[in-house]
Design goal:
By secondary structure, the protein is mainly α. It has one domain. Helices cover about 80% and strands about 0% of the residues.
Length: about 100
Amino acid sequence: MSMIKASSLVLTCVLLIAGATSALAATEADYKAALAAAEAANKEAAGLRNQWTVTAAAIAAAKQAAEAGDFDKAVASSNEAEALAKASIFQATNEKTLWKDMEIR
């Protein structure tokens, strides 16, 4: 399996896991914990100079949903943002070495 296909498969799995929600209603504490995890992952991606704009959009959507009192949506958006940030971290770390495989020799 090529590295690009493997990377795509991992990204898909991460996003599917992030989309899974619990049967119980989320609380403000759940939202704050999920948002903190998303922001920490996004900060790590920034350190690798590989932040994705869709991650920032998901964080903004989470904050907007929380302000409206919809903590289920806020947690889901926070989880999506965390998954996106982790995928960008995965991409940055893999591309540090994988670019050599694509170089014409």
